[in-house]
Amino acid sequence: MVNIKEVIETNKMVEEQTLDVRTITIGISLLECIDADLKLLNEKIYHRITTVAKDLDKVAKEIERDYGIPIVNRRISVTPIALVGGAACKTPEDFVGIAHTLDKAAEAVGANLIGGYSALVSKGMTTADEMLIRSIPQALCETSRVCSSVNLASTKTGINMDAVRLMGDILLQVADRSKDRDSVDCMKLVVFCNAPDDNPFMAGAFHGVTEADAIINVGVSGPGVVKKALEQVRGESFEVLCETIKKTAFKVTRVGQLVAQEASKRLGIPFGIIDLSLAPTPAIGDSVADILCEIGLEYAGAPGTTAALAMLNDQVKKGGVMASSYVGGLSGAFIPVSEDQGMINSVEAGAITLEKLEAMTCVCSVGLDMIAIPGDTPATTISGMIADEMALGMVNQKTTAARLIPVIGKGVGDTVEFGGLFGYAPIMPVNKFSCADFINREGRIPAPIHSFKN
Amino acid sequence: MENKVIITVVGKDTVGIIARICTYLADSGVNVLDITQTIVKGYFNMMMIVDINAASKSFGDLQTDLEKLGDEIGVQVKAQKEEIFEKMHRL
Lengths: 454, 91
Known about the structure:
The complex is a heterodimer.
Chain A: H1 4-15, E1 21-28, H2 38-52, H3 56-67, E2 71-78, H4 81-84, H5 92-108, E3 113-120, H6 127-142, E4 146-154, E5 158-160, H7 161-177, E6 189-193, E7 214-220, H8 223-231, H9 238-267, E8 271-275, H10 288-295, H11 305-323, H12 341-349, H13 354-360, E9 367-374, H14 379-396, E10 400-407, E11 415-417, E12 424-426, H15 436-439, E13 444-445
Parallel strand pairs in A: 1-2, 2-3, 3-4, 4-6, 7-8, 9-10
Antiparallel strand pairs in A: 1-7, 4-5, 5-13, 6-10, 11-12
Helix pairs in contact in A: 2-5, 3-9, 5-6, 6-7, 7-14, 8-9, 8-10, 9-11
Chain B: E1 4-11, H1 17-27, E2 31-40, E3 43-51, H2 59-73, E4 75-81, H3 83-89
Antiparallel strand pairs in B: 1-3, 1-4, 2-3
Helix pairs in contact in B: 1-2
């Protein structure tokens, strides 16, 4: 039987160290909705989502109450809409109509966000893929819950540089359409290399074509719990440090596993995966950067940061895989700037640069995440930053992503407020030198060779 | 089959906390399996393991009633299903 020490420890994690389940995400296949009639397609999509996910909010609340663990978000991911809408959509505006349907369906079932307004174009773009991508600025501007992602590259196919170039333009259009709100809609758009099919986290969640009809994926969190545990082992050896992180990650993941199993049982939808990612929020003590500082860095970004992050990420995975048989999604440490107070402090202290963040993305999941850059950054430069991030993922056989926010009308020294869980971000300087001639070449970068590893 | 729930009470120590909570539980058909208490940083911490299988009220009602009772006594009372602790601390 459990003892009082264990009970107090668990409750302290929730009450004082911001342990929560970050999201229950229902993945829903929309392949069965495909129809050449646009009106019918929209009706089928709305019906399918509101039927499968109708109890999402209710069940999440029940689980919160039963176990005393907060479940911060209820989310939905769907089959990439470029595939679903390909037969019916003749113009980008037709796709925007589907975005409205997704938005309404998410609202009807109480989902905070719905992901899957996506295209998978790592090798080439179909006409539908390109129309969907061109519709993204309008779709994100006119909806509030829809999230969009585009997979631009993969280890097996290389980098679709035509799509990379296009996304630089698209991102600036999204920024421009929401310029009166600090270009905030860019938060809902992410580009990937090696995008996972079962990611529960936004903005990049979509329900891959390799998935079943419907599935429950759960994202856990808990940077605060890891930080607190590490406070107890200050000055100890790496062995003790690693052991502590592993044990803590195990405990956090087991909570996610319990919530996922319960949600699966109560919703009658099979359990997919637990995403082990350490996902920070702007709340004090809920920061990945603070863990890095606790490990021994003055600020995240100091020399040694990449090594510390690599170790942290690996130990989180080692502890997590012991706790759940099905681990998937992104599973690593998120290092967004705006959503992490410790990271914001690093930027403000001048301790971290975009280039260091890029290096850090080589050893953790995600990538350049929630980074505000000057609004006058040229599209080709944005594409260059995206291409760099894609190359890291492609060569290292890992998922990488970029969620950049060019803030129209603002520059280095300014700050942008995103509100709530998204926090605020100081605008970071971008390298001023041009890569336009490189980005303006047509075609794609071939897949890398996987021998002669150096 | 047992349906175990963990009740935790945290707050300033005062006369009759256990008595009042146990009276409520007895009236609601809840069987107390184990009680442990300790003082952490000057605060009274109590944990009860109870079985609500034969309870006359739903788990949700028990939770609400216990919270209210806690407010009356001036302590925080929480009821959670046991699995969250079992899962976290046992292989």
